[in-house]
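Homework help board

Subject: predicted structure for assignment chain

Our instructor gave us this sequence and asked us to write out the predicted structure in token form, then describe one feature. I got the tokens but I'm not sure how to describe them. Can anyone check?
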Amino acid sequence: MTDRERVMKTIRGEGVDRIPWIPRLDFWHRARVHQGSLPSELAGLTLPQIADRLEVGCYSSIPDFTDCVGDEMVDRGLGIFRLEPLPYRAELKNVERRVSQAGRETRVEYHTPMGVVRTAYTFTEEMLDAGASMSWQTLLPIRAPEDFAAVGYIFENLEVRPQWEGYLARREAVGERGVAVGWLSGTACPIHHVMKELMTVETFFYALADYPEKIFRLCEQIAPFFAAIRRIGAEGPAEVLLLGANYDDSITYPKFFAQHILPPLREYAAELHGRGKYLMTHTDGENRRLMPLYLDAGFDIADSVCPRPMTRLSLEEYLDAFAGHVTIWGGIPSTLLCVDSTPEDEFRRSIDGLLAAHGRRGRFVLGVSDMVTADAEWSRLEYITERVNQIC
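My token output:
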């Protein structure tokens, strides 16, 4: 049975020969290349080839946002990306864009009939050492009430079209090593996009209290963008689509999640199910108070499940809550792989106990939450592979 077959059967709740073991290695790989500390036997290998060497599945759910050319990331400050592997391409129309550099920082001005929008983002040395994929926003586009109109104008003038060539090339490169997920957006809906990409959390909640009409008008202007990318995903060749990421029960708190995020996830899950497709969403964060809402949302895969000690919920609590309904992808806290965080004997006991208890459990794709970090030991990844093969 191939890893692609294992994952798809796991999502469908069908039996597999062993648990799929598919860690996210891209952060670790970028960091080790940047630091010059990649194990010599892995030098020059692609991530699929490294997965082969480790005898694991190839993770291909979230794209590498550093693997870009030209202007593919220039609109990162608006949460708009044009990477080749994405299922769509979004182009700005009727907007003058001015780009400048100040060291590692990229500054972008958008000149519109409704005013000027300014954004800036950068990679720090610490981020590069950690293998970060997404730059840090040093200047967000909405900082005052007068910024809403110009940002809304930009989204009203987006042109979105299908773009499946890059995705199909990535799917071919991954092959039977895993499932190439169609990544649509790290935000689930317009208001989530405003909160996560366009404003600081504090500014967003003050605005929601003080002038909610501006927030909801902007959401109306962003809505056609989400409608377009969802339609493209539903109509395209990807079996699994990813929409939304980075929830937390203190920020996307239950009432907010239930009112704003749950309905679009549930609606899109139902649409995909009608086409024989599946919805993945990225659920890293504190999730205890969101668990009942996740079940109501109807998505199929909870990506990057990060249990205790990195969050308050244990893996057992996740598995019991989602049993028979949602496939968990993750389960191994990234700190287990790091010598400074976890002694070797404790690491081995934890992995052995996890696999003994849950290695044959359904709807579980074993991975490292949120990713294999820069300081993870290669030998510990090899140990997990060895134990998966022995126990499962």
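Reply (TA_rk): Your tokens look well-formed. For the description, you could write something like this. The mean pLDDT is 97. That's the kind of observation they're looking for.
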